[in-house]
Amino acid sequence: MPAIVSVKDLRKTYDTGFEALKGVNLDIERGEILALLGPNGAGKTTLISAICGIAVPTSGTVTVDGHDTIRDYRAARSLIGLVPQEINLEPFEKVEDSVAFSRGLFGKRKDPAKVAEILRLLSLDDKAKSKIKELSGGMKRRVLIAKALAHEPRVLFLDEPTAGVDVELRRDMWNVVSDLKDHGVTIILTTHYIEEAEAIADRVGIISKGEILLVQDKAEMMTQMGRKELQVELAEPASSLPEALSDYDLALSPDGRTVTYTYDTRANRTGIRTMLNDLDAEGLRMVDLKTQQSSLEEIFTQLVKEQQS
Ligand SMILES: Nc1ncnc2c1ncn2[C@@H]1O[C@H](COP(=O)(O)OP(=O)(O)O)[C@@H](O)[C@H]1O
Ligand SMILES: [Mg+2]
């Protein structure tokens, strides 16, 4: 099936002359949770604003289910819901009215049953008649999502849904996002929290300085990009590594007690056995072995570093 959202060579230069998006290409698959992971200032908000038609791109195209977001704005926009980063709600408005109002903005006919269903989906049903100002911070975030879903979009964009919230609320949001996915909503969220991408995304796109550096299935990214390390603890500290071992990717810890061997998880042969034999032949006796898989954090840090160099 074709992608539900397709972004082609999207560029955005602000009036200041700053190039915030440098030719982004991105396909969003139906039903997935895609996390756009990047540091502050990477261009995440600019990208989703351009996709949602809030910021006008300098060049490039975005289509939503085949509708061009500029030429066919209304059709494209009706398929998209956007949850902004900041909470801006009318404090004296009732929850159900606020959601119904958002629905009206899209020219959808009134449908109290639909509004009730959306509130139920976000566990806000018992707050329908409450005023916004009576709600907790977590509830307000849920109202923002309900408003974004009010016109029954197929794709939901969440801009840093958990920036600055406490751990409990973060987990709560992750559950909400996962429930929405189970209801068939395609979800794109931006985040600068690696653990968030690691916890909920099906695919992760890494964005930095207006460029998408990599988009990949999360699990694949972890195994393919992941380099494994084997740590060999020595019985006696070594002052240096023997010349005979120079073919291996080895490093000696400053205290001389640990040799770290880095190898590629994709390789047919890891070379661990021969490396250990050669270590032994050089008189370096081991007392313990540990392995470590590189995390998404290391992959992310490495990619961003390579981009800068
Ligand atoms: N309206 C604007 N005018 C000029 N520069 C902007 C504007 N909005 C954002 N920028 C700049 O574009 C870059 C990307 O911003 P943004 O998309 O908000 O990043 P992120 O959401 O990843 O933190 C930043 O360097 C920011 O300062
Ligand atoms: Mg932002």
Provide a quick synopsis of the model.
This protein is an alpha/beta fold and 309 residues long. The protein has helices at 44-51, 73-78, 95-105, 112-121, 137-149, 167-182, 194-200, 218-224, 272-281, 296-308, and strands at residues 5-13, 19-28, 33-37, 59-64, 67-68, 80-83, 155-159, 186-191, 203-208, 211-217, 227-234, 250-252, 258-264, 286-293.
Provide key terms for this protein.
binds adenosine-5'-diphosphate, binds magnesium ion, 14 strands, Rossmann fold, alpha/beta, Alpha-Beta Plaits, four-stranded antiparallel β-sheet, 309 residues
Structure description:
- This protein has 309 residues and is an alpha/beta fold.
- It starts with a strand and ends with a helix.
- A hairpin with a 5-residue loop joins strand 12 (250-252) and strand 13 (258-264).
- The chain is 33% helix and 28% strand.
- Helix 3 runs parallel beside helix 5.
- The strands form three sheets. The protein has a six-stranded mixed β-sheet, with helices on both faces. A four-stranded antiparallel β-sheet has the order 2-1-4-5.
- The model has no long low-confidence stretch (mean pLDDT 91).
- It is built from ten helices and 14 strands.
- It folds into two domains: 5-223, Rossmann fold (3-Layer(aba) Sandwich); 227-293, Alpha-Beta Plaits (2-Layer Sandwich), CATH 3.30.70.
- Bound molecules: adenosine-5'-diphosphate and magnesium ion.
